[in-house]
Amino acid sequence: MISESMEHPLSLRKRLLVKVHLWICMWCQWYMEHLKTIRETLRTQSSAPPETNFAPPLSTDAKERMKQRLSNLS
Questions:
Q1: Which partner from 34, 44, 70, 73 sits 20 to 30 angstroms from 1, CA to CA?
Q2: d(Cα 55, Cα 53) in Å, to the nearest integer?
Q3: Position 41 in a domain
Q4: Helical H runs in 1-74?
Q5: pLDDT by residue (tens digit) across 4-14?
Q6: Residue 54 C-beta-side C-alpha neighbours within 13 Å
Q7: What range does the domain containing 42 cover?
């Protein structure tokens, strides 16, 4: 029900059941905190621009050496 409550609003009865259960169950409290952390992290990551260029660009000289070596393989 915790994950369900994050997807859409629960009925009053279900909300009360979850709250009462969370008062007594530390494992579900832990689970709920982890779900919240995961959701916040995903929201932060999805709004950040993607890193697409991980390596520095090759110099013109390096590109030419690669072309030469590849043409020698043929």
A1: 44
A2: 6
A3: yes
A4: 2-7, 12-24, 26-47, 60-73
A5: 888 889 999 99
A6: 1
A7: 1-48
How far apart are alpha carbons 68 and 65 in whole angstroms?
5
Q: Hey, how many other C-beta atoms are within 10 angstroms of the C-beta on 56?
A: 6
CA dist., res. 68 & res. 34, Å (int): 53
Q: Kindly give the interhelix angle for 12-24 and 26-47, rounded to the nearest 10 degrees.
A: 110
What would the two tokens of residue 58 be? Answer: 């090759």
Provide the number of structural domains found in the chain. 1
Which tokens is 38 given? 């995961």
The predicted structure's pLDDT at residue 18: 93
pLDDT at 11: 94
Residue 13 lies in a domain: yes
Rounded to whole angstroms, the Cα distance separating 9 from 14 reads: 10
Give the model confidence (pLDDT) of 22-65 as tens digits.
999 999 999 999 999 998 888 887 666 666 656 778 899 999 99
